[in-house]
Amino acid sequence: MSYDAIVLAGGAARRLGGADKPALSVGGRALLDRVLDACPDARTTVVVGARRPTARPVRWTREEPPGGGPVAALDAGLRATAAGLVLVLSADLPFLDRDTVRSLLDTAAEDGTEGALLRDGDGRDQPLVAAYRAEPLRREIALLATEHGGLAGLPLRALTAELRLAPVGAGALAAFDCDTWEDLAAARARIREHGTVLDQWITAAKNELGIDLDVDTTTLLDLARDAAHGVARPAAPLTTFLVGYAAAQAAAAGADPARAVSEASRKAADLALRWAAEADGDADTGRNGAA
Asked: What is the pLDDT of residue 250?
């Protein structure tokens, strides 16, 4: 499904003391980069706000006047897009995921709707975690501009109240945003919770290294365990490094990267088990001889 994405990264962040909120990090990654990672297949991604480094290329624009509010910012972003479907996101959503984005886009594309917006766990609709059909969005923005003589300072509800929007239920964290220092601290703590920290770390590491690859965490952890147990503890990180290197060579020769990792992991795991079996056999022989 073809769509454009608009990320609103302006605002004064008054409850954060004027800090550059999109650049604040959660799990070692800027909030803006985490949001951009949720919509990697957007045809065009427009960020409305001051220019700053990003993990992937985007198009930049500013609302008029700067600081003119979300409707003015949305209008500026919309002017830089051409797709019939537009994803609109705020830049402070540390836990937004691709599945949620896909649900918004699929719902917005259904007949009888002019868009879809996320409904959080408290039943509140989130117009800055939404997908809109571009034509009715442009129509309502133009009507607001005519009615009010401009868009600066207008609340989003003045826009969304006139659109037929379908709600999409949110996961536990998809709508979580960072408006205060307490929110930021909570996000940083939550990302380190047992059960999610490895997935979050792998995603951050892939982003940092420029890798787009499904990682079979279970296989790699089993390999590291077998190497540590059957050879020596330092063998675990060294073996996983060698697996990565071998997989990279295979991928460079034309192999599917995910299959290359799986095959290299299998070979290394088999070797570690054979190594351990030999050690166990030698130990048994020694015990029998001593007897």
From this structure: 86
Which parts of the chain are beta strand (E)? 4-8, 25-26, 29-30, 45-48, 59-61, 85-90, 115-119, 125-133, 165-169
End-to-end CA distance of the chain: 72
Structure tokens at 17: 């003391």
Query: How far apart, in Å, are the Cα atoms of 260 and each of 34, 94, 125?
Result: 28, 31, 44
The amino acid at 49: G
By the 8 A CB rule, do 136 and 160 touch?
no
From CA 86, how far away is CA 220, in angstroms rounded?
Answer: 38
The reported pTM is 0.76
**How sure is the predictor about 226, in pLDDT bands with cuts at 50, 70 and 90?**
confident
CA 63 remoteness from chain centre: 25
Stronger pLDDT, 226 or 54, i.e. the higher one: 54
DSSP at 44: S
Report the alpha-carbon distance of residue 209 to residue 79 in Å, rounded.
33
Query: d(Cα 110, Cα 269) in Å, to the nearest integer?
Result: 48
pLDDT tens per residue across span 146-156 = 999 999 999 99
> Is there a contact between 18 and 77 (Cβ–Cβ < 8 Å)?
no
Q: Before 94, cis peptide (omega within 30)?
A: no
Mean pLDDT across the stretch 37-62? Answer: 94
Using CA atoms, how far apart are residues 260 and 131, in angstroms rounded to an integer? 37
* C-beta separation of 256 from 214 below 8 A: no
Q: List Cβ neighbours of 131 (8 Å cut-off, separation of 6 or more).
A: 3, 85, 86, 87, 88, 101, 104, 105, 107, 108, 115, 116, 117
pLDDT, position 282: 52
